[in-house]
Amino acid sequence: MYRSPxxxxxxxxxxxxxxxxxxxxxxxxxxxxxxxxxxxxxxxxLTVKAGQPVTFTLQNDDPIEHEWIIGTADVHERHRTGxxxxxxxxxxxxxxxxxxxxxxxxxxxxxGVYQYICHLPGHEAYGMTGxxxxxx
Length: 136
Hints:
Blueprint (H helix, E strand, L loop, with lengths): L4 H17 L9 E6 L4 E2 L2 E5 L3 E8 L5 E6 L1 H9 L11 E4 L3 E8 L4 E6 L5 H4 L2 E7 L1
Parallel strand pairs: 1-4, 3-9
Antiparallel strand pairs: 1-2, 4-7, 5-6, 5-8, 8-9
């Protein structure tokens, strides 16, 4: 039976895409892009390894400002009730001006589940949240 080389190439390309597609949020990710689009984080779920630095490229494609705060429940409670208008010195707290990109590096020392949330008024309620699972 004759197989067109084009079909074989497409089959290999499809298989490679499936394998690589699973790597975007994998536990060995050391560089991750989180995009803000229509007041949503994309992706909204990631998996990384404990003790490994992770560089987050935070790309705000919206015409309004957002923030990216990642941490435990107590961190988020402080930000829900606090009044910090700008974040720029703590790697886990980043202000994202409209149509801009920021880069920050975070090392998660402990395995667990951490949320990233935009705490600007109404944004969390709208669904501007995401989760990072930190594995051993």
